[in-house]
């Protein structure tokens, strides 16, 4: 296994559990990829390095099958999942309960309930299909047809189903997780999936930081007889040890670089031309007394989206995808300490944030991020006692899969959503017998759910048999 992120570790565990001898080669000094945590500003103040909120991970059938609580993994839920504040103090509020969310959306409550109550109640059944490649025959075709119909819509068209600014903005903030212009087809897919999973499981955090997800996977792998070697960077085919199966938890371009001429020409072209999405500019804050949000419900929310009304979100997403840095970028804020108080030090709390910026952006978005905080929480700047910045360039150094700062490992266009890194009925195969790609570039995409790795491992086991 080349790469020890959540998907690489998940694939390694799946193989080791089936009796395969597994070695993970990780270039960094520790495994974990995007799911790592650490102290960045104040001693004892715990920050997530990237992946932070996990509605898809807590609902992952693969992770659930492992009983990772034996290795220290537990989930914590905030009082409110997500708040999208608006100028003037109002906000769209997302609760785990569909009915409670609908009750807060006024005239749009009935529409929200009609859209999300049915799929949320059936999420576990739907996940058997949506957490696998979309090509092929679904296990639950009728349910998938009903669930999938609205996901093909552009998020901007989906937004027209709502009449209130609160509901439209709440929807837009979740849909913006796709890092795509919201007027394009299928940009509703990511938002519908996240909302549905959240209404089933909430938007939890991992107690003790996201790093506990991958540390639990690593501990289980070792117990199953697997080996983990850190500080080992593979750059060419000669550095791959002999193996019956080789798997890559890497961006497609890195796989092409390693395999070189061993990769079939068609796969090599697809991997080298693979499109990456916008970047993430991350700023962690140490905040005395917490963020002074104007909206009181935002003070109880694990996640806060800073983007204003839907039209503003749509404009900023168009800009960043076109390579233009907006004056008011869309900013995601994590207040994980509200669900997991052990991350704080006294009255100083860790506040996690990143802004959507153009891929490869070389500027400094720190002040733009702080301005968005000040817009919805006047006086925020005075409460900041320290901060740690990870620019787009530094993001790609932290995790080489984040090409140009793209933390999703690929642009969420129709081709990627349907096929993965190349047009193929088997998105995990690279075209060389016994070799597979299992990173977030493959279905079902980003997240610490491990399903990309589990799906690829299933294919690898069939090859071994």
From TrEMBL:
<dbReference type="InterPro" id="IPR036188">
    <property type="entry name" value="FAD/NAD-bd_sf"/>
</dbReference>
<dbReference type="Pfam" id="PF13450">
    <property type="entry name" value="NAD_binding_8"/>
</dbReference>
<protein>
    <submittedName>
        <fullName>NAD(P)/FAD-dependent oxidoreductase</fullName>
    </submittedName>
</protein>
């Amino acid at each position: 296994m080349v790469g020890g992120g959540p998907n690489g570790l998940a694939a390694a565990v799946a193989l080791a559990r089936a009796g395969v001898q597994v070695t993970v080669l990780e270039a960094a000094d520790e495994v974990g990829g995007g799911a790592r945590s650490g102290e960045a500003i104040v001693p004892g103040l715990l920050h997530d390095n990237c992946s932070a909120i996990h509605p898809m991970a807590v609902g992952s059938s693969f992770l659930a099958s492992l009983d990772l609580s034996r290795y220290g993994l537990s989930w914590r839920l905030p009082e409110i999942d997500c708040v999208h504040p608006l100028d003037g103090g109002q906000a769209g509020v997302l609760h785990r309960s569909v009915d409670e969310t609908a009750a807060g959306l006024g005239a749009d409550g009935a529409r929200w309930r009609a859209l999300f109550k049915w799929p949320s109640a059936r999420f576990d059944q739907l996940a058997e299909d949506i957490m696998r490649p979309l090509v092929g025959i679904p296990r639950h075709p009728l349910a998938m047809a009903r669930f999938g119909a609205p996901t093909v819509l552009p998020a901007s068209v989906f937004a027209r189903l709502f009449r209130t600014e609160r509901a439209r903005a709440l929807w837009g903030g979740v849909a913006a997780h796709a890092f795509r212009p919201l007027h394009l087809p299928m940009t509703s897919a990511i938002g519908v999936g996240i909302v549905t999973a959240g209404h089933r499981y909430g938007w939890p955090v991992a107690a003790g930081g996201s790093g506990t997800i991958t540390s639990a996977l690593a501990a289980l792998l070792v117990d199953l007889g697997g080996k983990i070697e850190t500080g080992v960077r593979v750059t060419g085919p000669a550095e791959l040890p002999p193996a019956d199966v080789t798997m890559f938890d890497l961006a497609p371009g890195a796989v092409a670089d390693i395999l070189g001429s061993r990769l079939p020409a068609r796969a090599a072209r697809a991997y080298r031309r693979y499109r990456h999405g916008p970047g993430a500019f991350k700023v962690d804050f140490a905040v005395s007394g917490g963020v002074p949000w104007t909206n009181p419900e935002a003070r109880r929310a694990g996640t806060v989206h800073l983007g204003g009304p839907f039209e503003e979100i749509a404009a900023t997403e168009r800009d960043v995808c076109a390579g233009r840095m907006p004056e008011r970028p869309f900013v995601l804020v994590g207040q994980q300490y509200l669900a997991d108080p052990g991350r704080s030090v006294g009255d100083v709390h860790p506040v996690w944030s990143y802004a959507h910026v153009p891929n490869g952006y070389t500027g400094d978005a720190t002040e733009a991020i702080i301005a968005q905080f000040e817009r919805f929480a006047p006086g925020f700047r005075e409460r900041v006692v320290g901060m740690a910045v990870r620019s787009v360039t530094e993001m790609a150094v932290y995790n080489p899969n984040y090409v140009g700062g793209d933390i999703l490992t690929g642009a969420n266009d129709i081709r990627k959503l349907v096929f993965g890194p190349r047009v193929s009925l088997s998105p995990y195969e690279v075209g060389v017998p016994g070799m597979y790609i299992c990173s977030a570039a493959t279905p079902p995409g980003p997240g610490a759910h491990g399903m990309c790795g589990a799906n690829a491992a299933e294919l690898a086991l069939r090859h071994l048999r």
